[in-house]
Amino acid sequence: xxxxxxxxxxxxxxxxxxxxxxxxxxxxxxxxxxxxxxxxxxxxxxxxxxxxxxxxxxxxxxxxxxxxxxxxxxxxxxxxxxxxxxxxxxxxxxxxxxxxxxxxxxxxxxxxxxxxxxxxxxxxxxxxxxxxxxxxxxxxxxxxxxxxxxxxxxxxxxxxxxxxxxxxxxxxxxxxxxxxxxxxxxxxxxxxxxxxxxxxxxxxxxxxxxxxxxxxxxxxxxxxxxxxxxxxxxxxxxxxxxxxxxxxxxxxxxxxxxxxxxxxxxxxxxxxxxxxxxxxxxxxxxxxxxxxxxxxxxxxxxxxxxxxxxxxxxxxxxxxxxxxxxxxxxxxxxxxxxxxxxxxxxxxxxxxxxxxxxxxxxxxxxxxxxxxxxxxxxxxxxxxxxxxxxxxxxxxxxxxxxxxxxxxxxxxxxxxxxxxxxxxxxxxxxxxxxxxxxxxxxxxxxxxxxxxxxxxxxxxxxxxxxxxxxxxxxxxxxxxxxxxxxxxxxxxxxxxxxxxxxxxxxxxxxxxxxxxxxxxxxxxxxxxxxxxxxxxxxxxxxxxxxxxxxxxxxxxxxxxxxxxxxxxxxxxxxxxxxxxxxxxxxxxxxxxxxxxxxxxxxxxxxxxxxxxxxxxxxxxxxxxxxxxxxxxxxxxxxxxxxxxxxxxxxxxxxxxxxxxxxxxxxxxxxxxxxxxxxxxxxxxxxxxxxxxxxxxxxxxxxxxxx
Length: 706
Known about the structure:
Layout: H1 3-17, E1 37-38, E2 52-58, E3 70-72, E4 75-79, E5 85-89, E6 95-99, H2 101-104, E7 121-124, E8 129-135, E9 138-142, E10 158-160, E11 183-185, E12 188-191, E13 206-210, E14 216-220, E15 252-254, E16 259-263, E17 285-290, E18 296-301, E19 317-323, E20 326-334, E21 340-344, E22 354-358, E23 372-376, H3 397-407, E24 425-427, E25 441-443, E26 448-454, E27 458-460, E28 462-464, H4 471-484, H5 501-504, H6 507-516, E29 517-518, E30 521-522, H7 529-541, E31 566-568, E32 572-573, E33 588-594, E34 599-605, H8 610-614, E35 629-631, E36 635-638, E37 646-651, E38 657-662, E39 672-676, E40 679-686, E41 699-704
Parallel strand pairs: 1-35
Antiparallel strand pairs: 2-41, 3-4, 4-5, 5-6, 7-8, 8-9, 9-10, 11-12, 12-13, 13-14, 15-16, 16-17, 17-18, 19-20, 20-21, 22-23, 24-27, 25-26, 26-33, 27-32, 28-31, 29-30, 33-34, 35-36, 36-37, 37-38, 39-40, 40-41
Helix pairs in contact: 4-7
């Protein structure tokens, strides 16, 4: 060991293990139990109004920044917008080191094309420590003292998560990205991954790797293989071609019992399941697995045969509630539908009744929907469930008249109404929730759950795939229209317009994006280069249509075409001609629910549109991404709001606004709180990236009392 290496490790160990006055934020969202809670109370209801900026770290980059940083001892670890890993002095914001995967492993496809990276994982046995970072399809082991790769892990410091997903195919043709950090248990790091949710896609296996060597220790098949539980919920041999049912949202751990809880997303194809008739276990499922072996202990499927992309969007949260006068260890799972499920975390028994309610059948050829879907009787939904004409916007008489006319041509019948061809269907809450990836916060002393929610209406429709279509037009319909829309208008900035794309990017640049992904788009290395050439010719030579705004949720990515009879024509927000929601407010809320009783304590709008507020239309709520945290000081902190760039503190008991500040960019991330030398800090990543009219950057901003 070099003198430098010895000194660096000594300083790191001293700062990590002798911080009597320090309180860490040691895991994604604060702890492996998923509760977003901190015992710190220096900042409290009485003094939070005096918060001021302590430091700011500018990444120097632009693009989505959704990371929840770790704080270990005196060091803060986070991601830049492009997926570089950094370490800061958590008291001053001074950078200590920077790890750039593209430079360290000489791979130019990594970095600028990175998927969203929401956090890191930290392991220590008290003698050595390792920091784990996901970038694209790689998992890296980094020395937290120096920022250097640990060469004894995997292949010179990293493992390729594409390997082993489907034995019958070359691993280079698989697509997976680790957007949410792995979960540490003993000497294991347990990971899921983000897969395409349209064909082709690898299965969403949940895997545990050795933290020292990177060796695979166990695998759970979310698409069961012959002889495994749930195999009969799919067509025979579906496991060989079906994909996704993946854990992209992250996991939660009951460390004492050795149980890992993994929520999964939908199976491919998201909106038509004629090739996967059956309930499709373990898609859209909360899984309880033995963390030592990966063995299934219990499960709950939230959507049978999902054709609405109703992924479980966030890690569940562990808590203890009172039942029949006795404490019961529980687990709470939030959903895009705007409901929360509560279970006994050991047995999986529901702690509020769940009914199987009947829903309509699909009218599409080859499709067979489930006749029933599960629905909790309590708590009541934390988001509205259906749009009627009485719910349309009254922002202006003209906007209302437009909304009434547009609404008359839409189907709006509530939850679990199958899409049809020839008429758009309203999905409400929309494809981005209800609840989203930020997840809830829970006060462990009261059993109160805090969750922010979107209340945006979206529309969707299925188009019949023409059997005679060929070339680039057919490829666009099957691969690209799901995100960029039938009109190619996209939803900037998250999903850019493809109108005129060949004049903005070279053919090689487009091929690189298709193969490796960029931003929220996963890569598709399995696509035939000749087919991509046909797509380029189509984009270059066809007329550029004008169309309505379209968008896409977290879990989607283009389809590759697999002979499926229907394709999705694009995600469309139900917006008025001025770009505001065509339904009445609130458009986003913050909710407090007592999980002992199932009753709401309070509910308030979250966020606003500055232009509307200037006209006197305040307190509307807005789209919001990233979750809350709650502290022993009785304060709930949340950024999340897309348009007003605010970072807010609320009284957790009443929902009263206690403090707010305007960030340089929207804080689309979950904050963290920690203390150093007895001083409490609150930090949030701010980048913008969801509102095409607002600035985009990349900064971490910390606040403290004077």
